[in-house]
């Protein structure tokens, strides 16, 4: 039996823009806007307007999640729903009523809410007016919005998060064009990375003003960690992995937990003439406002090799001048999603946090398997028999269990996701849920993994 620590949090994660639908929102976020402009950019032309209809269905969805063993739900507030005037930070009362009732319904059903403040969903007005997180003014507006959230909902919510996967904001919006504003600009991505760290620190400062530091209420951030593994022992491959680790993981992990950017990364960016603009006051704030806990999203490792051409070549600055992706022969793949499956990396993460980040409290804030055309696996009663997902979750839980046994301070495991949800450009192509959503009728039913997870959560482990 793999038994987990007492009070281990068995949870699921989703986000506002991916579950609620944009009903009654007065503002658009960057995805609402992009979809309205270019629906063909989204898989099967499906946009964020209905998502999994959580805005209308939450009173039924929440008990269903409870039935699947979900004891904690991590979701996010939509900045573009809650705030009426972004500069004045006034609120939309209809949105306040929705979030209040959603939180109360969770609590009535015995589900603890964990609330995140930004899941890629920059209000498009702020993107167009200021460039979103390209601008330091927007980091102040974000802190103002965060403060409003704490004031409105902090009486019932003890766990808060500033961002989900800030690195994906760079990857999608500023490097590889899978999120609006679809820019390709390495140096700008560097500044956005810094500003995201700054915005997080400013929001944490607001939190501390209200709740201090006594640990009764906690604030963290959610990072997608992808441990970098070199293709070989060669010096060149090792150097590629070192940079990849700095860029992909430490650029957010170090300031969040240790309050400082890794000096090696700063040195490289400075030498290349692309280092962010920072002031001593801002760096002091980042130093002071570190997190209480970490959410770690884990899906896949980051395998790299030395780049084909030298970083010294005449070319525009992009982080990948220092590494190429390495496709390891014989790797196990989730072919639908295109991600390698390597649970051992979760053990490596657990030890890395234990040894290099003060063994800070953390939890797996997302882990899961996205599979397309799950109708393939339905039985005669219409239940998706997703044994592949159960196997995936078990493998990762076993690796995590080893990490916890070795002393890593992990308090929970959250599946991505409870109910199948809308996923950005991929829309509903890959399904991750413990609960199936028939998107044309919005009928929701437990998959085999939902019944399995309920048992694991009840027993606090599995055979
Ligand atoms: C995570 C994100 O990285 O991956 C989620 O936090 C996202 O928002 C999930 O939905 C799965 O992505 P995809 O594109 O496979 O549906």
Mean pLDDT score: 98
**What hetero molecules are bound to the protein chains?**
6-O-phosphono-beta-D-glucopyranose
- By helix and strand content, what is the structural category? alpha/beta
Report the strand count.
21
Q: Sum up the overall morphology in one term.
A: globular
The number of helical runs is 15
Spatial order of the strands in the main sheet?
2-3-6-7-8-10-15-17
Report the sheet with the most strands, covering strand number, pairing sense and barrel closure.
8 strands, parallel, barrel
Q: Could you tell me the radius of gyration in angstroms? A: 21 Å
Low-confidence stretches: none
From the N-terminal CA to the C-terminal CA, the straight-line distance is 4 Å
Helix content: 40-55%
Indicate the proportion of strand residues.
15-25%
Provide a compact summary of the structure.
Helix content is 42%, strand content 17%. The protein has helices at 16-19, 30-37, 54-67, 79-82, 93-108, 124-130, 136-153, 166-175, 186-211, 235-258, 263-271, 280-288, 344-356, 387-405, 448-459; strands spanning 2-3, 9-13, 72-76, 83-85, 90-91, 112-116, 159-164, 218-224, 228-230, 293-297, 302-305, 324-325, 333-334, 339-340, 361-366, 371-372, 410-415, 430-431, 435-438, 443-446, 461-462. 6-O-phosphono-beta-D-glucopyranose binds at residues 15, 18, 164-165, 224, 297, 337, 366, 370, 416, 423-424, 426, 430.
């Amino acid at each position: 039996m793999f038994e987990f620590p007492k009070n281990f949090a068995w949870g699921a994660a989703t986000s506002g823009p991916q579950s609620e639908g944009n009903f009654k929102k007065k503002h658009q976020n960057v995805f609402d806007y992009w979809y309205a402009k270019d629906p063909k950019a989204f898989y099967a032309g499906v946009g964020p307007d209905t998502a999994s209809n959580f805005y209308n269905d939450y009173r039924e969805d929440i008990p269903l999640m409870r039935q699947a063993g979900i004891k904690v739900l991590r979701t996010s507030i939509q900045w573009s729903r809650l705030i009426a005037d972004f500069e004045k930070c006034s609120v939309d009362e209809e949105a306040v009523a929705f979030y209040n009732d959603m939180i109360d319904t969770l609590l009535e059903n015995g589900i603890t809410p964990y609330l995140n403040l930004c899941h890629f969903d920059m209000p498009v007005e702020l993107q167009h007016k200021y460039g979103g997180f390209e601008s330091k003014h927007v980091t102040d507006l974000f802190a103002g919005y965060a403060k409003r959230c704490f004031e409105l909902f902090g009486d019932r919510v003890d766990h808060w998060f500033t961002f989900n996967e800030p690195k994906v904001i760079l990857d999608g919006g500023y490097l590889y064009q899978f999120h609006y504003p679809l820019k390709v600009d390495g140096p700008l991505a560097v500044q956005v990375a810094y500003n995201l760290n700054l915005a997080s620190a400013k929001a944490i400062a607001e939190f501390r003003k209200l709740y201090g530091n006594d640990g009764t209420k906690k604030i963290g951030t959610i990072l997608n960690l992808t441990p970098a593994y070199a293709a070989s022992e060669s010096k060149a491959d090792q150097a590629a992995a070192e940079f990849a680790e700095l860029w992909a993981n430490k650029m957010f992990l170090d300031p969040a937990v240790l309050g400082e950017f890794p000096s090696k990364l700063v040195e490289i960016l400075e030498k290349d003439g692309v280092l962010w603009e920072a002031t001593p006051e801002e760096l002091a704030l980042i130093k002071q406002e570190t997190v209480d806990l970490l959410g770690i999203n884990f899906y896949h490792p980051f395998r790299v090799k030395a780049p084909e051409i030298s970083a010294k070549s005449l070319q525009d600055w992009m982080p990948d001048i220092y590494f190429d992706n390495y496709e390891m022969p014989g790797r196990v793949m989730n072919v639908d999603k295109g991600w390698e499956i390597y649970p051992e990396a979760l053990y490596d993460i657990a030890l890395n946090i234990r040894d290099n980040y003060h063994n800070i409290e953390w939890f797996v804030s997302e882990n899961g398997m996205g599979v397309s055309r799950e109708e393939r696996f339905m039985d005669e009663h219409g239940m998706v028999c997703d044994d592949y997902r159960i196997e995936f979750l078990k493998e990762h839980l076993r690796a995590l269990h080893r990490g916890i046994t070795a002393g890593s301070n992990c308090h929970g495991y959250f599946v991505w996701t409870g109910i199948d949800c809308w996923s950005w450009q991929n829309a509903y192509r890959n399904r991750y849920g413990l609960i199936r959503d028939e998107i044309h009728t919005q009928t929701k039913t437990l998959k085999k993994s939902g019944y399995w997870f309920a048992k694991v959560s009840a027993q606090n482990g599995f055979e």
